[in-house]
Amino acid sequence: MHMRKYPFSILLICLLQVLTAKAEDGYRLWLRYDKISNPTLLNHYQKMMQHLWVDGNSPILQSAQKELTMGLGGLLGKPMNQVNSIQNNTVIVGSVESSKFIANLQLSEMPRLGKEGYLIVSLTIEGKPCLVVAAKTDVGALYGSFKLLQELQTHQYFGKMVMVNNPAMQLRMLDHWDNLNRTVERGYAGFSIFKWHLLPGYIDQRYIDYARANASIGINGTVVNNVNANSLMLSKDYLIKVAALANVFRKYGIKTYLSVKFSSPIELGKLKTADPLDPAVIAWWKQKADEVYKYIPDFGGFVVKANSEGQPGPQNYQRSHADGANMLGDALAPHGGIVIWRAFVYSNETPIDRTKQAYLEFKPFDGQFKPNVIVQVKNGPLDFQPREPFHPLFGGMPKTPLMMEFQLTQEYLGHATHLVYEAPLMTEVLDADTYANGAGSTVAKVVNGSLGKFDLNGMAGVANIGDDRNWTGHPFAQANWYAYGRLAWNPSQNTDRIAEDWIKMSWSTDSQFVAKTKQMMMDSRKVLVQYMTPLGLHHIMGDGHHYGPSPWSDRLGRADWNPVYYHRADSAGIGFERSSKGSNALEQYAPEIRKIYEDPKTCPEQYLLWFHHVAWNFKMKSGKTLWEELCYNYYAGVEAVRQTQKIWAAQKSLVDEERFEQVRQLLLVQEQEAIWWRNACLLYFGTFSKMPLPVGYEQPDHDLKYYQSLRFPFAPGNGGSN
Question: How far is CA 158 from CA 43, 44, 162, 177, 505, in A?
Answer without folding.
Answer: 11, 8, 12, 42, 17
